[in-house]
């Protein structure tokens, strides 16, 4: 079982290490033709403008869009979330190119600079229901984006409370929902739409592998129509790989 990890810049090595810990091979993807060797892809965190320039240089955007449009599972973390959004605000002058596919509006640097990076316990009921473990996840936010608005087909997997005045200052960019004023006090930090998963934080920097196993099961969902027997076997193999490896501490960020 191999999963591609876009390896232009950012935390691709950390994702590959996280996959290795649960018995899955991660393949570095730098050229369009390499995408044909994988049927799931992780777009890691990093500097989104730099990643976009490198992706343009290697002519990756057409192949990445084709990959997403083909219904293959794609997971974007931090900068990867920005890449997958249909709309972004807070961009640098001149903007950047996007892959798109995720019906949402993302603020590129909502949580501020590197010095304003932080950790937080997020309520993750769907993750706990699917993958077991605690009903919270210790998330690491590094110069993180946030989703301000999502379409009706988007499933919100985690949100984070913010001061209401911070969101009100973005009123020209995002239409407020007066019928749901409580929404003004939260931003979305994890979401899924069909074959696309996105998180504003960095699960690869912790030893809690549940987001990675959640994503791998999305991969198997996509292959289920091809062979339900093979899917069942893969699920059993994945569970066997995880036996004795479930850990929810934070060895890097304590």
Could you write a compact summary of the structure shown?
This protein has helices spanning 12-21, 48-57, 61-69, 79-84, 125-131, 164-168, 210-223, 228-242, and strands at residues 2-6, 25-29, 41-43, 74-77, 85-89, 102-107, 118-123, 136-141, 146-150, 155-161, 186-193, 196-199. With 254 residues, the chain is an alpha/beta fold. Strands 2-1-3-4-12-11-10 form a seven-stranded mixed beta sheet. The protein has a three-stranded mixed beta sheet with strand order 5-6-9.
Structural write-up:
Pfam families: SNO. This is glutaminase. It comes from Asparagus officinalis. By secondary structure, the protein is α/β, with parallel strands linked by helices. It has a single domain, classed as Class I glutamine amidotransferase (GATase) domain (Rossmann fold, 3-Layer(aba) Sandwich). Helices cover 30% and strands 25% of the residues. It contains eight helices and twelve strands. The protein has a seven-stranded mixed β-sheet with strand order 2-1-3-4-12-11-10. The radius of gyration is 18 Å and the shape is globular.
Supply database-style keywords.
254 residues; alpha/beta; Rossmann fold; seven-stranded mixed sheet; three-stranded mixed sheet; disordered C terminus; EC 3.5.1.2; PdxT/SNO_CS; lyase; glutaminase activity; Class_I_gatase-like
